[in-house]
Fold this protein.
Amino acid sequence: MHDTPQFSTRQRILGAAEELFAERGFAGASLRQVTSAAKVNLAAVNYHFGSKDNLIEEVFRRRLDELSRRRLERLAEIADEATLESVLDAFITPALELSLDRKGGSVFMRVLARAFAEHNTHLRKFLSENYGYVLKDFAAAFANLLPQLDKEELYWRLDIAVGALTYAMADFGVIQRRPGETERTHREQMARHLIHFTAAGLRA
Amino acid sequence: MHDTPQFSTRQRILGAAEELFAERGFAGASLRQVTSAAKVNLAAVNYHFGSKDNLIEEVFRRRLDELSRRRLERLAEIADEATLESVLDAFITPALELSLDRKGGSVFMRVLARAFAEHNTHLRKFLSENYGYVLKDFAAAFANLLPQLDKEELYWRLDIAVGALTYAMADFGVIQRRPGETERTHREQMARHLIHFTAAGLRA
DNA sequence: CTAGACTTCAAACGATTGTTTGAAACGGGC
DNA sequence: GCCCGTTTCAAACAATCGTTTGAAGTCTAG
């Protein structure tokens, strides 16, 4: 009997890959760095995932499946009392909770933002085909709340809104958590400002 | 006498590096790909720039020196009749013109957005040390126009605004140029929506 | 025309990349 | 006990990485 690893090889790889992809990018993080951080053998990646590209997709799938489910769940919950603020909250809060799920903070959201930065056709197609329906549902909810905007105007504003949300949730900005502040309250403040700012931009 | 290349070796390398960094990232674009695209010898990069890291910095310097100058120039021009919209315009329009400067479109703005995605300490320090004063000046202008906001509230909103601008100018969004539309009018529309949206978010 | 500085070139350096291999170790069912 | 599918392992694969080298080429000043 040995270390009795708390998590399976698959999970250890996914966790280490997520952190290293966030820190160094998909090309910048090598499989040797990943397997070394996960304390598994180098060949384990190709055994369990087939290739590095498949590992990248699996890193997204593991988080986005649940994130998408929770977002649509909250959107359904508020359906009859929807406001711009509550719909934005339905989109943001699940991401906020996800980013607080692990001690490291906003690791996965940084990976997700990298996926936007990569103009990688294959990756964008994968994300759009598998999770595009979430954005579609939210776009419909916003369309109901902003009947004065024509379709083109609405899409422009949603595009800008998604940009602000992505950028902020990935912690790209310059604002750092203040010393006396917990990670949770810092990010809750950010979410509050995000909702306020974006709602104003949408209905301007 | 041979090809009489229209541009110097240095310029060809910088141009090719910019495009490949935008497309594949800093780690993802190799010096062999860069020198091959620039049609220069592989060793030319280390001869003219010393290292790949120095080449990356030079790619930023070449564009940001002029971009910063133009932004502050426009900011000074509108000093006595400043509105949220005109200050945002002073920030956005120079970037818009830059992105239309070359046939490819928003190449450099995508590279700049990658610099945010890279959490790379060295790169962030370089950008902050060399171009941080631009953001400082604009922050001061916004502070004058939004006296009702305390410092912390203002910084949150500016952080979110910069996120929206960066994301949009880098063309991360899903909105594509419509077939019958020129690149110029497409990006001018984007700038118009950006200013409208962001101004509303700032004064909400 | 030649001397000398600047630039380009093909070739190679050791290190690192993603992936593959075949054998060793493991673990539950008989 | 043994068997067999699953998993892990060290080792090696060819390919590519950033960088260095020393010779060849180019150009201008005297």
